Amino acid sequence: MTNESAEILVFDISAGEPGFVAEIKELGGREILECIQCGKCASVCPMALAGFPVFNKKLFHAIVLRGREMLLEDSSIWACQSCNRCTEICPKDVRPFEIILAMRRVAVREYAVPALATDGLKSLYDVGHAVYLKESGNTRKKVGLPEKPPSTISYPEALKELQAILRKTALADIGLIPMGGSGVADSCEV
Amino acid sequence: MKVGFFIGCNTAFNRPDLEQAVRFSLPHLGVEIDDLEGQSCCPSWGTMPSVDLAGWSAVSARNLSLAEEKELDIVTVCGSCYGSLAETRHSLQKDPELKEKVNGILKELGREYRGTADIYQSVGYLYKIVGLDKIGPSLKYNLAGLKVALQPGCHTLWPSKIYVDREEDSFHPHILQDACRALGADIVNYSRLTDCCGMGGMRSADMERSFNLLGVKLRSIKSEADPDLIVTGCSSCLIQIDTAQAPLNKDGRINFRIPVLHYMQLLALCQGAEPEKVAGLAKTGLSGVINKIRGDASV
Amino acid sequence: MSKTGVYICHCGENIAGSVDIGDVVNFAATLPGVAVSREYLFMCSDPGQELIRQDIEDGLVDRVVVAACTPRTHEPIFRKTLEDGGLNPYLFEMANIRDQDSWAHWGDREGATQKARRLIASAVAKANLLRPLEQRYVEVQKSALVVGAGVSGMFAALDLAGMGCKVWLLDRNPSIGGNMAKLDKTFPTNDCSACILTPIMVQAANHPNIELLAYSEVEAVNGSIGNFNVTVRKKQTYIDWDKCTGCGDCVTACLGKTANEFNDGLDNRKALYIAFPQAVPKRAVLDPDNCINCAGSHIGQEHKISPKTGEPMPAPCEKACKTGACDRTKAFAPEGEKFDINVGAIIAAAGYRSMPKEPFKEYSPDSPNVITCMQLERILSATGPTDGEFHRPSDGKKPKTVAFISCVGSRDKNHHIYCSKVCCMYMLKEARLIKEKYPETVIYIFFIDVRTPGKDFEEYYNYCREMGIKIIRGRVGAVDQLPGDSLRVRAYDVDLERPVTLNADLVALATAMEPAGGLEELGRTLGITCGPEGFLKELHTKLYPVETSVKGIYIAGCVQGPKDIPESVSQSRAASSAAAVPLMAGRVPVEPFSSTVDQEKCSGCGICVPLCPYSAISREETGGKIRAGIDIALCAGCGVCAAACPSLAITLQGFTADQIFAQIDALTSVAGGGPID
User: Does the beta carbon of C358 lie under 8 angstroms from any beta carbon of chain B?
Assistant: First the structure.
């Protein structure tokens, strides 16, 4: 009997991308080489506990072994909860959460981003909120609040300010979302 | 006493009853609320923090400057907002180069980030600034021994170093516990107190796995504590625990329902607020709990 | 006119790699006073030294300059070379063109060569003016002080005492024995710790040359090698140790209680206590902070009179004492008794402290069933709080599942960056002891790495695995408290590649081996520094591990860094051997660089007196006039007095004013290598 879905799982270290560790350090994961792979972070990471394949500890080792391609193909890092329990207990002060963010930043620059994240950014730019529900006006009225909260939704000038800021950030250089004119656009459901 | 209220996306659009609860409860404790007009998303973890440190800091610093120009501190009800804002404050404090870069961006818009505003999460604010002793006199109803299990929420605990209202022992937190006791609650413990609820990036990435994680936590709460109510310090935990119980029951992963409230909602209810306004959007039935609190048959 | 020989060393590549040796050799030959200028690959080698010796014997040179590495390591070698050639060893000057030139300016060949020229010109200028000096010696007292009477201190003391030295063996605890007395069994032999330690303790106590100073502290140390004057403070015991027999009746009668340090807080001891059953000396001590002054009795006051009987009412402890050793009416001085001793050498063997569990909040340290491995050691020990029964603290039940966690506080930036070295072995040891007695216990040890490199250690590890002790690689991130005193251990299993969870009855934390409390102050008192991790610093990690920066003061055992008993004993015996060198020789050479006063030039102004950091100068009457006089034994040759004297009456031998001015001229003049920009 043959198993058609069996793959060769050997990871070719020689085929790793040079400069990847420097890239991660540049994008915020400065202490990645101090990790000794003790596993304390992985023992309490919600990603690891929930069964995602590339959780914190694995990610760091894969980065050091320069497995950039392999990592870009996996979307586990978007399931990080930013809970920072890893940061709290890491004995080498590696700031594991920052390394995960650094990897996300690598992915964003390669457009390897899940749709939900792109939508969130688009919503942030268009209305000033990562999450915006169209029927929220009714929900708010129901509890006795004005339809619009006192945020960029109610203050177009503030939204313009936010958009001007975003246009000055790396988000504009990356070109992941359109950042032209402003205006309250459609909602982004969660 | 006055404070800037940073509302955040989920509270404003998904659970505005929580917003109402804050608008009710803080003034009842003598705290005036400033709306920080023009506030935007904190920015949340899946957006600018995942793109670029300077960009994240700039958006966040703009929000912080709204409070600074009014010489106010900030209080939030959402763990993610709390974390995003506080981490920015910390980064800009530690890294003068980053601060300069961010102020360079803000300057062209006539803004400046100085680092004078402190960020509190709602329960921490009550504990550290207002004082829990002010709560008792403001109450109309006492919980009279209602059995409460706690969900402090990851972000209110970690990374503890950067928070001004941090716990001394973030693995055995007591701030939410003390605040609930001030309402007359009877706290029932369970061993997975600091486990993550599953809301956040994970829920967006894979709802199935997110609910699995919550299932483990809920089963621990039920079997070890069996509370009347779960009280949380974070709006994200509130939404997760409130909305996930129906689907979890549906496929038999749990066979019970426990109502859940954010602490500010519970506080507002005990201070006499109308349940419709401050807790009316809950999906997991609250009528039993509300009846117990208010002691009247109708809701 | 002197005939100076200049010898320039390539030092392999170390100097030649940066400095143009050929250029410098030629330049040196042109300097005034230079008779020969030579080069060699390794001047310190036999043929290199032979070059110098031959030139001396041939009468070609009577002053020697070696341009090479650092005098710190090599000056003594070349001085010996001169001596062998028949020249006074102090007619020698060294130019450091390695550390101070070649290494510092690696890559700048032009600049390095120019600098070498100047350094050599400077050395030659001084060499031309050198005068012969006689070696000085300082007498060494044939006695030593050993600070710390644990296994390291005791072995060091026994070695020195065996060689005929008088040894004061000091410890701040009421008994000697140190941390080893707290252990149950010791790896890798699983010897009963008390069984192998007690004979040493008794030997140390009974040796005719050893005087025990238990319950004492070192207050101050003055002097230098051969002659240390140490102020010792014997702390107040409030018991007459000459009368006390260690019977323990007073302890039974005592009502005051406090946490028992010997059992790491697992149980209580009385305010009046004897350190442990095999204590040496076995004497009672009163801890006044926890004395509750029974019967209204206060130290130093007469007994209260009983209204009923009209008789004085002694305290329960006094009543119980049959020898009169416990007498609270005596006027005890609370600070104890101070006295001075004079020793030739000091060995610091003050041991370590086991880090407590409180800082590690993620492991629920408030739970009574989360303990440190030292506390577990006390539980397993027959003299411990459970009499050696394997009971857990919360309810006395025998644990069915035990989890050990390694590296708690070690390899941790937030606490101690170093590895504590012994924990891997002692966790295996404790697991093995439990498993041997109670084979049905399930034991898990969570390691980052398993480090068992010593003699017989790998075999020990294999044996433990074969017993069924489960080894897991991967750290524990959290210990949660479950209902019923149970604990949930959450770790990541590296080999299984998954997070794992385990319910345990007892969790033992291998906490770091920390510097002993008060070590920094002890270091300061002795004048030696601590390293960045807080342990006392050795002179050179590889070559001089027991010497310190202060001649005559040595270190041994865990005071220098974490190590196990075999290594501690090796090091302590190395320290006693090193200390024996000056102690047995009876005298040590001291460099002849001391200051002398020209009585003719001295005006007796006295400016130099308060400036001397070693209090070596005094104004004395000589021939009817007040003049400055320098005590050679105290003079350290720092030169402050010579620099300050307004009459230039003081000369620092080996660094005279004319020599220094000549060096300055050589460094700055054109002939020395060019103008300074």
Answer: no
Contacts of B151 (CB under 8 A, 6+ apart): B193, B197, B230, B231, B232, B233, B234, B237, B241, B260
Residues of chain B with pLDDT under 50: 297-299
Helices (H) and strands (E) in chain A, counts: 11, 0
pLDDT of residue C306: 86
Structure tokens belonging to residue C87: 């020249």
SS3 assignment, position C223 = strand
Q: Which run of H or of E encompasses C110? A: helix C109-128
User: Residue B93 — φ and ψ, nearest 5°?
Assistant: -75, -40
Q: What is the pLDDT of residues C337-349, one digit of tens each?
A: 999 999 999 999 9
Interface of B with C in 149-188 (CB under 8 A): 169-172
Q: Label residue B257 left, alpha or beta by phi (over 0 means left) and psi (-120 to 50 means alpha).
A: beta
Phi, psi at residue C147, to the nearest 5°?
-95, 110
Question: Is residue C495 classed exposed, middle or buried when 0-12, 13-18 and 19+ CB atoms within 10 A define those classes?
Answer: exposed
In chain B, domain spans: 2-122, 132-294
Quick one: CA torsion of C39, C44, C46, C49, rounded to 10 degrees? 60
What residues in C contact A38, CB-CB < 8 Å? 407, 411, 448, 474-475
Q: Where are the domains of chain C?
A: 4-135, 143-235+340-351+516-587, 249-335, 352-514, 595-653
Backbone dihedral region of A189: left (phi > 0), alpha (psi from -120 to 50 degrees) or beta? beta
Nearest to C11 by CA among C71, C97, C92: C97
On whether the C143-235+340-351+516-587 domain is CATH 3.30.200.20, my answer is: no
Beta pairing class for C345-348 and C352-354: unpaired
> Quick one: CA torsion of A43, A44, A50, A56, rounded to 10 degrees?
-70
**CATH of span C352-514:** 3.50.50.60
- Note the pTM of the prediction, 2 decimals: 0.86
- C-interface mutation test, from B160, B169, B196, most C Cβ less than 10 A away: B169
Q: What is the CA radius of gyration of chain C?
A: 32
pLDDT, average across residues C6-24: 94
How confident is the model at residue A1, as a pLDDT?
53
Domain with CATH 1.10.1060.10 in chain A: 13-109
Question: Strand, helix or coil at C201?
Answer: helix
**What does the DSSP assignment read for C607-648?**
SHHHH-TT--EEEEEETTEEEEEE-TTT-----HHHHH-TT-
- CATH assignment, C4-135: 3.40.50
Taking the C-alpha atoms of residue A96 and residue A40, their distance in angstroms, rounded to an integer, is 11
pLDDT tens digits for C355-395? 999 999 999 999 999 999 999 999 999 999 999 999 999 99
| Chains with ≥3 CB–CB distances under 8 Å to B | A, C
User: CB distance A116–B204 less than 8 Å?
Assistant: yes
**Interface contact B170-C361, CB threshold 8 A:** yes
d(CA A134, CA A130): 13
Q: Which pairing describes strands C595-597 and C650-652: parallel, antiparallel, or unpaired? A: antiparallel
Class of domain B2-122: mainly alpha
How far is the C-alpha of C128 from the C-alpha of C627, rounded, in Å? Answer: 31
Q: Nearest-5° angle of CA A178, CA A183, CA A189? A: 75
Q: Please tell me the class of the C595-653 domain.
A: alpha beta
Q: What is the DSSP letter of B132?
A: G
User: What is A13-109's CATH number?
Assistant: 1.10.1060.10
Give the CATH fold of the B132-294 domain: Rossmann fold (3.40.50)
Residue C100 is given by DSSP the state: I
For chain B, the distance separating the N- and C-terminal CA atoms, rounded to the nearest angstrom, is: 33
Give the span between the Cα atoms of C574 and C556, in whole angstroms. 8
